[in-house]
Amino acid sequence: MSEIIIKAESIKKNYDASYALDGIDIEVLSGQILGLIGPNGAGKSTFLQSILGLIQTEGNLEVLGMDPRKDRHQLLKEVCSITDVAVLPKWMTVDQVLQYVDGVHPKFDLKKCLSILSKTDIKRSSKIKILSRGLVVQLHLSIVMAIDAKLLVLDEPTLGLDLVYRKEFYSQLIEDYYDGDRTILISTHQVEEIEGVLSDALFMNQGRVVMHDSIESINKKFLELRPNIDSIEKGRSLRPIHQRIELGREVLLFEDIDEEKLFELGEVRPPFIADLFMAIMDKTKRGTES
Known about the structure:
The chain has about 290 residues and is an alpha/beta fold. The chain contains eleven helices and 13 strands. A six-stranded mixed β-sheet has the order 5-6-7-3-8-9, sandwiched between helices. Strands 11-12-10-13 form a four-stranded antiparallel β-sheet. A three-stranded antiparallel β-sheet has the order 2-1-4, with helices on one face. The protein has helices at about 45-50, 70-75, 95-105, 110-115, 135-145, 165-175, 190-195, 215-220, 230-235, 260-265, 275-290, and strands spanning about 5-15, 20-30, 35, 60-65, 80-85, 150-155, 185, 200-205, 210-215, 220-225, 240-245, 250-255, 265-270. Helix 4 runs antiparallel to helix 5 (about 135-145). A hairpin with a 2-residue loop joins strand 11 and strand 12. Helix content is about 35%, strand content about 30%. It starts with a strand and ends with a helix. It folds into two domains: about 5-205, P-loop containing nucleotide triphosphate hydrolases (Rossmann fold), CATH 3.40.50.300; about 220-290.
């Protein structure tokens, strides 16, 4: 039976009379790779900061059975993070950074880190300040992957990186870090790049959870139909929850429908997570306005 890694009940965070988090209720289990998806200001980073014990929140929050604020020192022995604002000391060399981490973190494996770094263009004698942003992120990832942590928190980890570095980042993450038991939380705007690695998705908007489900369940529950020209009206008559035009072709999104009804009408497939998110946001907005 999977261990509960994160348990959040009625989590709220207020800034200037408005809620950055407005009643978050979720459970995250061991082995899950959960994608936090939402627009700027949705509360994703605030929630991740609360998990790391960086901010105080209302409600009940447990991470690995601990209170992130009260037990932060103990918690950080089991949790690692990479964020878009993460920096390494620019005056240090790569080797000095590795020696420092080896001296302060009991679960850091220097040999494993050096093995991962050997696959990159990073030289141990180089100072951090001369490394490109992409190489700094690679160095940070190499350090994190060499720490035997139960939970990894990634907040826009590839922000500012080019396409090659972004693909290498997630490929290396899955190949060298994820073992089926570790839990990973990822918040990113490049949803299409993480879709293939996610086990679960959490949609957020205005500090609230809009949808939380496994990718497997989502792919069974939602289907997109690109109807043939002579089947458009019949497709519409099946009451899709959302419609859009893509490259001049109509796309209809359905929820909990018998897929056999759709196959004869055109091309059928599960939606991409980014497209589903936009559809759910549009549906939520229309529901609020009506």
